């Protein structure tokens, strides 16, 4: 009896110790995997599943769902929905214009990469917009653009308006041209929001390049200088190639930042005026969750489309990373 | 659907476990206003109810209005209170259709509400039953700067032509006739509703929001033409699309704009902006089509009993209580709104008195475009109104687009 027990323990212990190396990483990964599954993977599939239903988010009194199966109907509707195409167009616009953050960040980084007293302070000041919340940035820019009391409005008043007194004796302004109302014009509102979004994004790219610049090999710069490289040539042929990893990351975070733009739009325009600043993420929120939405199936269909776009992009990104790793840089 | 179902069942289980703590004599009430005035009105009423019914233990969950709008979608199934505040009209429709509210038609008959609350009965009804008991509503109309009107020697306009000629005088004197802030869209719906109610009347309003009348219908086109005329000959302040309704008070308070189509809740805002009671006044939106019975906007707040409530007997007692004339008089005096019970009395505030006169003599009461029309239609419609206000030449394109949305929403 005792002998067989002992034998069991021995075999058990040896199985554990034999597989220690295989088990240990999975053990450490387990908590992360569980949470990732619960909060990311399962909701993705649930959302895709939901996009084949029409559902107003309500359950009956006995707890059964009121959803009804509609197959691909939601996607067909999406194809004919001008607001969807408007949102997609705005997403593309965000994507293209957001790319300006990369060169702008690079030049600020080059500018700040010098040894002057107090440089740390300047660097932190430039980095500041990235630290404050996007919501705050949205609010600040909302006020900035305000035609009545914002910076834009004040400059306009100084140029085109005269101060007078109205019937009741209160100070008022009469303008020869009405001040531009950027956030309520269908043509310019999106550009206004993108400009606001660029502000923190440039700071982010700048910090990526600043760290990258620390790793630029001094001997290569010197060799280049001996060979007569200067200015743009130096930047293009010697510095930039060494900054390739930083550029890669900067492009990646900027693309993701552009695709997930949501908070700025929610704060500055709520997708308005009349839906002209919507992007997919905000349109999804609006149709599914907001007060006038409650169409969860349709919202999920929008989410699925956005997911597919991101999926393509992220797969490409991962493939590139894998290639780089394989090639040993 | 299995996953969704699983979620629902789990929520149900959690609900039954949680509510096991609520005892037989407990009455759980979910309310939706934390602002000082409304909160006090509600708390006072609950205290009085408690004093009159010492055997009932009232438990109150008071939540912010926007949070309540989200939470109600879950708690009606997951953890239902015995009474919850909500809105009549189309806002209650999804819950009624999903069987989440308990009909109270018999309570209305028992308590004589059919007479006392007659004006609001149509909006409280759906599918042949009555679903709740309202405790308060407020009037809409035109708030104006009385001092400006006096200066320019303008009388309160009674008809469309009088309004237009009053506007002409204001514009001559560099006063913008109307202020408005359409950033959050619904304010434009107030203007639309009034022009539509005055052009076509109550039945067309209901037909439109019920999806029976198209937006390109000649009657609705006429409404929009009148609106274009109002924009052309009267005019709204510039930049209204980037302002909230509160922002739009600034030009009104400064004397740059003279009128504001608004609900009575805005009076507080005028006073906070420094205006005194003598500087502001109220008139009913002028008549457009002569002889048309006058209908008004009067959004109501009400209480409902969820189907999953545990203590329905006491819940009905509470609903009967909130409709009582004395309770409604006191409650509405506190919150500065109008009681619905025709036997109740109103406070001596001049806006409340004018409002009571406006609403109690109305031929019909609309709830407001975004409460009468389903959510998706309301959103598209209000975006259309804002777009129209910014560029009236797009009228037909907007109306045709709204027809498309209507077809989709009401099918």
From TrEMBL, chain A:
- Bilayer disposition of the protein: Multi-pass membrane protein
InterPro entries to which the protein is assigned, alphabetical: MetI-like, MetI-like_sf, UgpAE/MalFG_permease
Please classify the protein's predominant subcellular localization into one broad category. Answer: membrane
Q: Where would one find coiled-coil regions in this protein?
A: none
Signal peptide, first to last residue: none
Family matches, as PROSITE patterns: ABC_TM1 (PS50928)
Lineage top rank: taxon: Bacteria
Record's Gene3D superfamilies? MetI-like
Q: Which CDD domains match?
A: TM_PBP2 (cd06261)
Which UniProt keywords are given for this protein, alphabetically ordered? Cell membrane, Membrane, Transmembrane, Transmembrane helix, Transport
Supply the Pfam families for this chain: BPD_transp_1
> PANTHER family, from UniProt?
BLL4140 PROTEIN (PTHR43227)
This protein is called what? ABC transporter permease
Automatic annotation (TrEMBL), chain B:
The listed locations are: Periplasm
Which key words tag this protein in UniProt? Periplasm, Signal
Q: Which InterPro entries match?
A: Bact_solute-bd_prot1, SBP
Record flagged with keyword Signal: yes
Gene3D superfamilies, per this entry? Periplasmic binding protein-like II
Question: Do the record's keywords include Lipoprotein?
Answer: no
Q: Which domain of life is it from?
A: Bacteria
Q: Which residues form the signal peptide?
A: 1-24
Q: What is its main location?
A: periplasm
Question: What's this protein's family per the entry?
Answer: Belongs to the bacterial solute-binding protein 1 family.
Protein name in UniProt: ABC transporter substrate-binding protein
